[in-house]
Amino acid sequence: MVSLQEEWRKGLKSMRVDSLDKLRKALPSLQQEMVSPYNFKDFYTFSFKYCLTEPRQKTLDLETACQMLSLVLGSRPHVASFLRFLQEQSEYKAMNLDQWSAFLRFCDEIKPDLRNYDESQAWPLLLDNYVEWAKKGMVTKS
Predict the structure, then answer these.
(1) Same domain, yes or no, for 130 and 85?
(2) What residues does the DCUN1 domain cover (predicted)?
(3) What CATH number did the domain enclosing 101 receive?
(4) Which of 17, 38, 43, 74 is a plausible cystine mate for 12, CB 3.0–4.6 Å?
């Protein structure tokens, strides 16, 4: 299995980046590549795997997951609210790759007011619980 550090070095070498100055100059083109949903999805998945510190680790603790979601997804719809949910709830202590991946799809597909959320679709229970929590919050604000 190739380590993330090896992948990083291989990627830098393929871009002919061997200094911080060259990396700085390469960043705009890398950012442009992230505009593609396919490339962003790969980066998003990579960001989860990058945080795994043990060989057989399958989950991220919620503190790390929240920091990475905030960093990688920024101000996309649902991110701030989902992070509040994760911090307030006590049932979940970690997030797995399936939940992580589904949350990106959720952000891309579900409207901010959740009106197109269909609980009969195959969302992880974590997201079902988030929607239930968020809808309760919307009702109390009304």
Answers:
(1) yes
(2) 1-135
(3) 1.10.238.200
(4) 17
Give dist(CA 118, CA 102) in Å, integer.
14
Q: Is the domain of 112 the same as that of 76?
A: yes
Does the pTM surpass 0.85? The reply is no
C-alpha–C-alpha distance, residues 103 and 123, integer Å: 9
Q: Which domain does 69 fall in, by range?
A: 37-141
Give the mean pLDDT per block of 10 residues along the chain (142 residues): 68 78 76 80 90 93 96 94 97 98 98 95 97 87 53
Coil vs helix vs strand at 103: helix
40: nearest Cα among 92, 108, 93, 98: 108
- Cα separation of 11 and 30, whole Å? 11
